[in-house]
Queue: 2 jobs
Job 1
Amino acid sequence: MPELVFFSGTMDCGKSTLALQIEHNRSARGLQGLIFTRDDRAGEGKLSSRLGLVTDAVEVEDGMDLYAYIVDHLSQGGRADYVIADEAQFLGPEQIDQLARVVDDLDVDVYAFGITTDFRTKLFPGSQRLVELADRVEVLQVEALCWCGSRATHNARTVGGVMVVEGAQVVVGDVNRSADEIGYEVLCRRHHRRRMTSASAHAAALSPDVLPVSPS
Ligand SMILES: Nc1ncnc2c1ncn2[C@@H]1O[C@H](COP(=O)(O)OP(=O)(O)O)[C@@H](O)[C@H]1O
Ligand SMILES: Cc1cn([C@H]2C[C@H](O)[C@@H](COP(=O)(O)O)O2)c(=O)[nH]c1=O
């Protein structure tokens, strides 16, 4: 039975790499997929992984009907043996419904990849709809780690190196950015709640609890 599968996790846990591996393995066996993405860091119409791999993809726009796009593609003689949708958190809920319809009405597997929650720990609308509709939600096996060594489960946004909890839900960006840029860091829940990034933990470790007593 064809499935709608949501591969979900934090930033930097290998989602795009897995999407590229699924694409590679299927195309190596003569299958042809349709790849969608939205707002990949590598630019419009690209699906990229931090391991350096990149492939062309269809850039999803607001209001684009993914079901109609695929039906149109098929009716023009194109093939869609499977569908990959990366950065699926940025898709609208109605676009996730369209992907579910692709599975049910066209008998095509759809593999969606995305982060579940934003920097405020709130579900992205697209991810929420995927959790509601997917046949399976798969958590990636490669653990992204918090600076403390625990499994990272949440995404923090940093501005000027400081964790923020207010701002627009969507700001395209990356982990390991310099302190003057808007960036992201993956954290365990404990340290996300305490707003402790690696930089603030490092600063706290350096600041002595007791002021040194100068010799009189
Ligand atoms: N230099 C590197 N050497 C080995 N693995 C790396 C390197 N850089 C990134 N990675 C791996 O790539 C993962 C990020 O992959 P990516 O597909 O870009 O993540 P996501 O799409 O989930 O944000 C990291 O968790 C790490 O395992
Ligand atoms: C937490 C969070 C992330 N984003 C953006 C930042 C990146 O451009 C993508 C995630 O990409 P990845 O391949 O999973 O690393 O999402 C955002 O816009 N808002 C957020 O709250």
Note: The chain has a mean pLDDT of 94.
Job 2
Amino acid sequence: MLICVSPLSYHLTEFVSAGCEVKDYGNLTFEEFPDDEPVGRVKNARAVGSANQRLSEAVKAVKKDGHTTAMLGGDHSLGIGSIHGHSAAVGKLSVVWVDAHSDINTPLTSSTGNMHGQPVSFLLHELQSKLPALPNFSWLKPCLSAKDLVYIGLRDVDPGEHYFLKFLGVKVFSMTEVDRLGIGKVMEETCDYLCTRGNKPIHLSYDVDAIDPTVTPATGTPVVGGLTYRDGIYITEQIRHTGLLSAVDMVEVNPLRAQTEEGVRSTVSTAVDLLLGCFGRLREG
Ligand SMILES: N[C@](CCCC[B-](O)(O)O)(CCN1CCC(O)CC1)C(=O)O
Ligand SMILES: [Mn+2]
Ligand SMILES: [Mn+2]
Ligand SMILES: [Mn+2]
């Protein structure tokens, strides 16, 4: 298990008592860039590029040790380094991105310049020509094909992102599909789709804002109409059941964004329960 700076790392004992063999690789420290001026509209590019290079090296090392990595964020821009490092260790992989947002803006389509809304574009082979050069990103090479990406939980997609998703034919189960099909059918179709794509190692990148903000309010970009707690857990149980789970990110837990202590508690305990589902805890006992 690999820990970034996260309030979740204080719950490692729950994984041990759930029967997991846990190796804590500790918190990663990242270089500070006090004068990280925007590059175009992109904010904190130097810090994000440097941190993700460090994270990629760390995830690759943990994978080479033979572990399933759990990267505890931090914001979703960390998906860049986590997925890049995972791919450096295992080669081709599939990504299941559970999120209210598709995080596939490029620096040119992003309206906020926030890099947590852009990680997927930096990873996709098909969008490389759309990316400007950024400082501290020269190490990054694309490692994901659009057809090996599945989204679950989308409900706040920007126009540029929607264009990319349609143009690239990315598999999307938005909240509309979750409502229409039910989470059981969504996961059946997700797993069938991944099976037709050759059963590659799965990288599950889980943004806690995929879950409804009444359950996980301690996050930076909450969006109403999210997954129930039960839906969220069911997703992890079914991905675990494939036997292909090779790395998981649990990101966007931010205690500073909750209005109450109960909001922090609910968010952190939900994130811990989601991770326990990834590592084999079953609600049946
Ligand atoms: N797509 C957003 C949100 C990204 C969320 C990242 B996360 O990791 O949490 O999934 C939002 C852009 N949106 C544009 C319209 C505005 O009215 C509100 C913000 C962006 O900033 O790019
Ligand atoms: Mn996200
Ligand atoms: Mn999100
Ligand atoms: Mn967010």
Note: The beta strands are 2-3, 69-72, 94-98, 149-152, 171-173, 202-207, 245-251.
